[in-house]
Every structure is written in structure tokens, then in C-alpha cells.
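Researcher: Good morning. I'm working through a list of sequences from a screen, and I'd like to move beyond sequence-only analysis. For each chain I'm collecting a predicted structure so we can compare shapes side by side. This is the next one on the list. No need for commentary yet; just the structure.
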Amino acid sequence: MNKTYLVIFIALVITVTFLFFKADVTKKVTEKFHPNSPKSAKNSNIPENLTKFNPFETPTINGVRSRADKLSENMEYYFKEYSQEKPIRSKPIIEKSSLPFVAWQMKFEGSILHKPVIRNGNLYVATNGYQVHSLKTRTGSVLFSSPIASQPIGANLFVHEDKLIVAQRNGAVDAIDLKTGKQFWHHRSAVDEKGNPLDISISGISINEKSFFVSKHWGNVYIGSLKTGATTETPGVTYESRIQLPSVFYNNTMIFTNVAGELHTFDIEGSKKEWMHIFEKGYLLSLVEDDGSLYGINNLKELIRFDLGTKSIKWKKSLLDVGYQSLIIDNDVIYIGAGNLYAINKKDGNIIWQKEKESGEGFKRPITLNDKTIYCTETNGLIYSINKEDGKIIKKWNIKEPIWSGINYSKGLIFVPTIKKRLYTIKTY
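Model: Good morning. C-alpha cells for this chain:
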């Protein structure tokens, strides 16, 4: 009997030693052949704490940290809502507003963390209460409220033909009928395992004429048919590296970036890899393609122009802060919220004008451009209409609630979601 125990003990020691040796070799190989691996001593775009992924933390120049330091009360509210495991599918309620500039305001069962979609006089939003709502833009009258599988991601909804495309944090994508709210199809891309933090798996979505492209936290893009919702291809990388932004398109190719500071380019079908580029430092928090160049701001607060022809950086411009998908381009001018609000010449990176922030975090969220007017927000609840030619304020409003999403504009009204589960409709006239 003693010999049996001895043999078992020796076998266990050998097994444990082998596993430690294998892990160490894998670690060294990864650091050697992948220059932006988290532990790489010479060239690390990703701080060590990024490997301990928390989807509620915000990238900064120092890596990933909780925003609770600055917005503890709001973050406590935000965490509480996201920890909810069951849907709250109640009807939205019109509230009486005490603000004279509000046309109407509505309280929802969950926060709206994306830019509202407007189509044919109707407004579409998805909430953290596991629902999609359609409202009349002029009155707020509810046309339909439809259930979805999970909470939507904090990125844009898309309209394709008669469908609203809604990406959700558990890996699901739903196509909803714009008129009736009924589901056309339901897509669920693979996740690590149920209950794992990375089950919060979608970080961005984009569409072209026939497909949707879902960015995944594990390093892959899932391509699916807009007609059926079926997965057609899954291009990506073999190592773990979170894709933090939606894909962009150029000359029949798809391009995505990740927090390893890489650009990956595949053919539009996702079956053939074209090329790859690794930024020496930093990773992107905004990404837009325009006239053969990529424009984006990274976690080092640098606005970058990357030429897709030469596959090289044409210029960099240091800005006050970072911005989260807060970049648009119009007539060779980049408008971006990055602490301050900037207008920048896209050809040479020179600043045309800048509007200084009036609050702590300032301008960081997606902005809307209508004709010659920019509509934008500061995180603390300030809302602006600004002349795009000179950066001068046309009007300013304050709803005194945190704004972490994009806003939209239609026919004299600005639609502003807040994390306090409200949607404010601001009169610009």
C-alpha cells in the first residue's frame, strides 16, 4: 500500500512540474514572437492589469482603470445596473420636465448607452433592460417595445433595409422589424463559457451591403449574413487580444484593430489575410477610414493618420485627452472630442480651432454634425450646438445628468440619452 501511495505522489510531482514548465515556455515564446504581448519588456502597448479584463473599466494612458475615482456615485449606479441578471421589461414612461428647453423626456427601464437611431420620423433605442423601443420623434409616443436576449453594447445600432441590427453583450445579434418590432432572425456567436466575464463578448459592430461584422473580446471578428443572421466567417488572431472597436472597410477589404496595437486586414469575405501592421506604442480608441487613410486617437492621447497605401503613419497630433469613437470627418476636417473639442485639418494634422472644456472630463463621446452645426456633449451633462467653421457656441444647455453615449439630431430636436435611464429631447429653436 505504501508503495502505491509513493508512486501516486511521484506521478503528481512530475505532472505539476511539467505543467509549470509548459506554462513558462508558452509565456516566453509568446513574449518573443509577439512584440506587444502584455509581459514584453521592450515593447508593451498593454499594461499588465489589462490582462485581468474588466469590461466596466475605461482605457487611459496608464492602462485600464476604474472611472469610479472621478464618478463614484455614477459608477456605483452603473455597476448595479449591469450586475442585473434578469431583464426588466417595463414600458417607458413620459415624465414631466422642469427644464424649459425640453420638448419631452422619457424614463426607461434601463440606460441607453448608444447613439439613438432616427428613421422616417421614428426614434429607435435599445436599453439595458433587455428591450428595443420605437418612439415618435415629435411626441415620444411608444410605437413598440420588443424583448432582446441581453443588454445592448455601447455602440451604434444599425438600420439595414427594413431591419434594425442590435448587437448585445452576451454575443447575440438580433434583426428587428422597423415597423412591428418583430424579430427577423437571432444570431449568437460563440463565447468562452457561460458566466465568464468574457461572455460580455461584443465590443463593436459594423455592416456593409450584405454582412455584419461583430468585434469580439477574444480577438476574432464574426461575419454574418444580414439576410439570415448565419455566421459566414471568423477571421482573427490565434492569441488572445481584445478587439475594442468596430471594423472599417477599404477597397473590398475589412480592417480591424486590437489592444495589442495591431491593424489586421482581410478580404471582405474574411477568408484571406491581406496584411498586418503593429503600432510601436499605444492602441486606438477611435477608428475611421477616409480617402485611403485611417484616422484614430489612441490611449496615449495622440490623433493619428495612417496611410493605407504606404502602410505607414503620415502624422501624429497630441491632444488634451482620449476620445471614445468621438471622431467624424467632413470636407477634409476632422472633428473630435478629446477632452477639448477640436477641428483639425485631416491632411497635415494642424489644429483649425478648439473649444476648451468646461468640466472635468470634457468632450469624449460621439458627436453629431448637421449642415454647419456640431451637436456634442460633455460627460457631466452639458450639451452644445457649435458652429463648425469657427468653434463658437451657438447655444448651450445643461441637464445635469451624466452622458456616456452619442446623441442625435432631427428637425430642431437633439436626442440625449443619460446613464440615469432617461432620454431628453432638447429644443434648439
